[in-house]
Amino acid sequence: MSASVGLDAKTLLEEFKDYLQIQRAVASNTLSSYQADLRQFFEFLNPEKGVIDFSKVNEARVRAFLDHLADQQISLRSIQRKITALRILYKFLIFKSYVEASPMEKIKTPRLKVSLPEVFSVEEVGRLLSAPEKQTDLGLRDGAMFEIMYSCGLRVTELLDLELGSIKWDDGSLVVRGKRDKERWVPMGKEALQALRAYLEKSRAKLMKGRYHDFVFVNNRGLRLTRQGFWKILKAYAQRLSFKKDIHPHILRHSFASHMLEGGADLRSIQELLGHSDIATTQIYTQVNAKKLLNDYEKYHPRMKAPSEVTSST
Q: CA-CA distance, 311 to 308, in Å (whole number)?
């Protein structure tokens, strides 16, 4: 196809969706985000007709779009993702011979200041794991979810994608499907295994309400629990327990990694358990523990003084 021919934005998005799913095995949440990013880009290029002539989309036009996002006070993290989506889009367009070159080559991704993940203390984790009411069906479900998240360090999507066949009762482990459908083996702790068994034996069948599917964790209508549903559940418990921290869906995953490292686990082992492809991603937890070490030193060392209190001895 000639690069000068206009492409229908809606049709292109469908083609691009198939490309992401088949060629790149992109996770469903990432796929939805990329599609939303590109709709925004297409609307910026041609808000009325819905037909894009990519031969006229040069580097200056892309930069104008990024400036437009900045003017709207879009977060830097979101802008980073949109740039990634555009890079992949142009790889697809070149692959399909819709364009000959990408205007993204000279566009740099803005650097994001790495923020340390918020984690629970061991005491806070204990309070959270004890909070669900084990006498209720939903309490048994919530307790099992929290125990597995903390015991195994799963991502929320990995937890909610667990199926009955993912559970290996003979050795008390899970087969987890992670990013890009990569599978990994993850052991479960004794408490998590007991909580999961109690939920499956006493609660799940009643919550299913006659439905049939293999997803382990379901809502009160028998459907697979969503990320939003899990997020609401976690926030509700955090509010009930008066936690003052910035609660986010992966806080139990981050706490798992931080507590493992604090207990002396090898960084490579933590990398494997978390399913990180790059150990640099795992190394962020060494900074979390260094921060805790400094805080403990300042709090507990009997001779620790604030800098303003230190005077020269000369």
A: 8
